[in-house]
Structures are given as structure tokens and as C-alpha cells.
Amino acid sequence: MKKHFKIAVLPGDGIGPEIIDSALKVLDVVAKKYGLTFEYKFGLVGGAAIDETGDPLPSETLKICKESDAILFGAVGGEKWDNLPTDKRPEKGLLRIRKELELFANIRPAKAYEPLLDASPLKPEIIKGVDLVVLRELTGDVYFGEPRGREVRNGERVGYNTMIYYEHEVKRIAKLAFELARNRRKKVTSVDKANVLEVSGLWREVVNEVHADYADVELEHMYIDNCAMQLIRRPKDFDVIVTGNIFGDIISDEAGALTGSLGMLPSASIGERYAFYEPIHGSAPDIAGKGIANPIATILSAAMMLEITCKVPEAARDIERAIEKVLEDGYRTGDIWSPGTKRVNTVEMTEEIIKRIG
Ligand code: ATP
Ligand code: MG
Description:
The chain has helices at about 15-35, 45-55, 60-65, 90-100, 125, 165-180, 200-210, 225-235, 245-260, 295-310, 315-330, 345-355, and strands at about 5-10, 35-40, 70-75, 105-110, 130-135, 150-155, 155-160, 185-190, 220-225, 240-245, 265-270, 275-280, 330, 340-345. The protein is an alpha/beta fold. The protein has 2 domains: about 1-110 and about 265-355, 3-Layer(aba) Sandwich (Isopropylmalate Dehydrogenase), CATH 3.40.718.10; about 120-135 and about 155-260, Response regulator (Rossmann fold), CATH 3.40.50. The strands form 3 sheets. A 10-stranded mixed β-sheet has the order 2-1-3-12-11-4-5-10-8-9, with helices on both faces. Helix 1 (about 15-35) packs parallel to helix 12, helix 6 packs across helix 7 (about 200-210) and helix 11 (about 315-330) packs across helix 12. The radius of gyration is 21 Å and the shape is globular. The two termini are about 25 Å apart. Adenosine-5'-triphosphate binds near residues 77, 286, 297 and 333.
């Protein structure tokens, strides 16, 4: 089994460098425990790259990414670059990476941590025990479908887009959904609007066909409107939710909001060849440089890397358990602090997590 991995590390802007530093410290500890070696190559991206090179994604950075097994990304953006034209801004660097690496799936876990139930906008009895993953398709759908446009027809302005999915796009995302479910609670909810849309009819048909190879996984279909409601009413019942680009855009934000802790949410974006790991949150310019950012979302993103790229799920579980224990023991960064808990900074939080990895 592969034990050596090339990791492209792109800290970016704002709190990016601080939280990436934490994730690398945790990775070092886990690497020793499991006999893994990581070869890190650092790349400039976002505002940091604009300042050095004028380009939010310098070719050197893209090269590092393309030669890597996985990319660990912090965050980009900040006031300093807000007045640049859209295609020169830090965020453009991230969009270009996603496109260049042909990342077709976005995985966003949402998990309710018992000591943080208060942060959720939902009642504790509803949010308690939530442990789900939203898998969003990224290459197809109304985002890229042709024809698209705005024009004048019969003296009236019209705007239009095309919602389209190819069989192969649905197949590969469905396969990934069933694979993910196999290592979890073995349930997939496929979300569409098959009562209204032809494209959803195809989606449903293909998902059913792929399911034939995964008899051990339960499959249910749900309309997007119903799913949006059930996520609020009984979020515990979901395990893996798989859906198209636009429904996934909405549902993944909704699922993220369930737990109420931005600093706790990791993500992975997967392609045929590359994998990209980043926290959900942005560069948090308001607290950048203060050393108080919550590193957990980024550390959990590194844990996803250990599971998906390195295929060492035990290492990911170690990290997750350590984080659960740290929270149980009352340690909190400012964003998740509440009266009666111990306030710690980024470095202290990281050290407490490392102590508990064992
Ligand atoms: P984006 O950059 O993705 O558009 P945004 O600018 O709306 O997002 P963030 O940069 O994620 O949002 O920050 C939103 C708020 O959450 C800020 O007040 C920020 O300080 C806080 N925040 C975000 N991430 C963290 C974190 N890891 N630790 C502590 N606070 C955070
Ligand atoms: Mg931001």
C-alpha cells in the first residue's frame, strides 16, 4: 500500500496560513503513528500570489498541484484585493484550480458535536446525532448547459439556461455516493425534481442502475423541495445525500448551517486524478493575524485527506475522536466559546488535539 504522498500546500490569505499550520502539525503526528510520509510543496495562491506575481494562480502553483497526490488549501480573499476586477481577484485562483484539476464532486460533511449543540439554530433534540454528508456534482447542470443567454424576443427581455446532465456524469457521482455510504451508515438519498424535470428523470434512472452494484447500500429518492424541509425536520435520518450542481449548492449550505459552527466544517473536492481539501469558511479577515482562528475545519479537511487520498480511515477517526474529546474537555476557540468553557487560541487548540491523538 502507498505510504508516501506528495501534498501541495496552499495557505492563501487571512487566517489561511495559521490554520494550515495547525493541520500540518496534526498531520505530522498522525504520519508518525501510521508510518506515512508526506512531501510538502508550498504554493502561492489568492491575494498572497497577486502581491508576489500579479496572478491569483501562478503557473508554478498549478504545476505543484498537478504533481501532487492531494492539495491542502487554506482560504483566499481580503479587503486589500476587493477592488480588483472579478477575474483578477483572489477567489479566481480557487475557481481556476477547481477547473484545471477537473474536480467533479464536492463532499461536505455536517456533523453535530454534542458539546456544541447550543450553536445550532435547531432544537438540541433535533440536531443531536446528526452525521451526514452532502455530495454535490460540480461539472454539469444549469451552470454550464448550452444554450444559455440573455436577449430580446418580440420586444421583451428574456434570460435562459439549460439544465443538462450526461449519463457519464451521473454515473461517476452516483458511484462515489455509494462508495462513501459503504464506509458510513450505508444509506444514500438521491435528490432531484423528477416530478417536473426530464433531466431529473435521467438522473434517477442512472442512479438506480448504478445502485445494482451496491446491494448492501440502501437507496432512497427525494424531491429537492422535500429534502430542504426534511433537513430541518429530521436531519438525523440522512447519511449520504447525492445531488446535482444547483440543488447541491443550496442543500450543502443548508446542511452546513444546521450545526451553526462555520469553523468546524471541512470539505473535499474530488476528480478522477486529483483531490482538493479545504475548510468551508473563508479567510476571516476580521480575525486574521491574531492567532485566534478555529483550526478544526482545516484539521478535519486533512482528516478527509487521510481517509480519501491516503486510504487510512483509522487515522481520520483518530483525529475526529481527538477533536470530540477536546470539545468534551471544554476547550473552545472564540467562535465556539460559551460561558463556562475554556477559551484557547489556535496554537493551544492544536496542541490539545495533538495530545489526544495518542
Ligand atoms: P467567503 O470568504 O467564503 O466569501 P465570508 O467572507 O462571508 O466567506 P468568512 O471569511 O468565512 O466569511 O468569515 C465569516 C465570519 O466567520 C467572520 O466573522 C469570521 O471571523 C468567522 N470565521 C470564519 N472562519 C473562522 C474560523 N476558522 N475561526 C473563527 N472564526 C471564523
Ligand atoms: Mg471571505
